[in-house]
Amino acid sequence: MFPFCFEWVWDVGHYLFFGAMWYAVIIISLGMTYCVGKSLVDTLNGKGAGHGDGHH
Amino acid sequence: MTKDNHGKAYKFGMVIDLDKCTGCGSCMVACMSENNVPFKENETDKKDSLTWMTVYKLTNGKPFPDTDICYMPRPCMHCGGKGDHGHSPCVSVCPATATDYGYDTGIVSQIYTRCFGCRYCMVSCPYHARYFNWWDPKWPPGMEEYLSPDVSPRMRGVVEKCTFCYHRYQEARDRAYYEKRDTIAEDEYQTACTQACPAGAITFGDLNNPDHEVYKLVKPDPHNCGRPRDPKAFRVLERLQTNPKVYYISEREWVRKAGDNYRKGEWDKKNMLTKADGQH
Amino acid sequence: MDSALIPEGARRCPFPVFAAGIAVASAVLLWGVYAMGLVWIKGLNQTNMNDYYGFALWIWADLAVIAIGGGAFFTGLLRYVFGIDELKHIINLAVVIGVICYSSALLILAIDIGQPLRGWFIFWHANVHSMLTEVAFCLSLYFSVLIIEFIPLVLENRQLDKVPFFHNLGHNMHGIMAVFAATGAFLSCFHQGSLGGVAGVLYGRPFAFREGLLIWPWTFFLFTWSAAAYGPCFTLTVCKIFEGVTRKKLVKDNVVDLLAKISGWMIATYIIAKIIDTIYWAGVTVSDMGFSFMHFYSDNAFYGVWILFTEIVICGIVPAILLTVKRFREDKKLLILAIVLGTIGVCINRWVMVLQVVAVPVMSFDTWALYIPSWQEVATTILPIAYGIIVLSLAYRYLPMFPQEQELYDAK
Asked: So what's the ipTM on this one?
């Protein structure tokens, strides 16, 4: 999983497999960080307050 | 081996003469005792017993008086895989790199402390050479004293299999290194089953070395993934291209035929071609 | 009692009735949890698996729930990436089913390994050449995507929505859901495929082995395709069960019809590919290995040609016809027949690709091996069903799972 694991080899298989894996991990975590961050900012700006009647 | 020797790779293999095997089971007993293989209190159900070396009983299916039987000892085949590149059916599927192909020996190893027991390797092996520890290994009181200190016992929940007595290879290699020799001699590294067989049916050695008995017996073709050139020799399930390093010899045609699967008429066709080749 | 949590205007059964239903499902769940505890404490000797059946009921259950949970990724792909807007009325249900199916699959995998405490080795010591490694990575990652798709629905709960941060979070997650859905579809295509690859790469097992493209055997593509095709059948089946149990119409006919039609065409194309694959496998692949087609379907007490016929004709061609022809699809009974057959069909496919693979003798002197699961295996396989019923019931009661519910009620 990491280059310091002793079975790690710098070959095409590892480039492709872990390249795709880390790419997906980064997208998912960046996406969530963005959502949480923006929601915090929105909340601090008073957005969404008084919204409780179930309507959007 | 000396330090500067990168050496030519060994390719350890086994040849079993089925016409000599009497089915006595000494190889199985020797294997279990050598490798600390545990056993169950009740061994009735063989499908979850640990028998690294198993002796199969084959019959020609003919009625008396033509009935003939053959006993076929089956260790791990230490497959070289497709193209003999080391991608054995089991090695390539293990998700945790817990089974490995030794390019210096041709031996397929199992790292017990790395295996987490998914059993994918067992599913991949058509020879049923891999066994799972369904139970905690237990020995009757006092019997622990007989365990070999050279082989680690395995815990419940991991897969194990024949290692070609790899610890014996390590010992021979260490001795050669200590004595500043580059190679190990044929008789320095022999498996427990080979030594235990009273009929001398099992031969073990380096398939890459023309001086070794295994090479002389089957004459493996290095350009054809080690396929035997001797017409009496065969490997089980040759057609699946698993390229095993265990060879069998038999004078009996039905035994050789039982080594693989053939559709109707295929065997006779193959036989005719082989015979025609022999005549030329 | 719990009316403050129920979506406004929604009609739900009285709490005691609901609680009684949950109690029944919980009893079944506890039975499964007990069996799971036994397996974890005493080991896999609690199962009827053996050295012939290294993979058995649990791996089938894994493959089956992931296939029928495939409705989540495929509906998500159609809704968020291809922009088929009508499907927003059924996507919530698809996502909840997906979450249940994938969490169940991960749980079953955790029970199924001999050394559960070493489960993380599959990530840490990953062998990138193993299809199972690909399954583990994509499955876990896709599960996190499903959770992300599920969160906004949970946040729509009446009480949670009152919290400004949660309201904003749900809104913002909706905003970039296409990114998550696209990532999910990518991951899903790979793990559905690699589950097919698990069987397809086994060149020592002629029943499973398939040639393929580059490193991927044909089963890789067939599994992804079949999950996308049959997954919506299960989503629709659950939808119909919901409507039956609640005696309410929850999703409009045009939405059901659209998803059924897409599923139908997917099944039709899949089944053609599957038939071609089967013919090539029988005529070339196993023939070269020295096996006749009937070797795999005779000389044993269970596996006969009937299973192939059921999978391909009864549960493949029949639902494909019923779902693609408008006249049949619009007939309520035929629609239900088609989606149920479709769900069964994909489960049979997964069954044969796990259990028949190991049942078939490969060495000429070997014999067929049949197996009957132990009660512990059965209980732990039923556990996800009870768990699914509980989660679905909770989601239906407290979350706006069916956006058209109110409108359909008002129209009645």
From this structure: 0.93
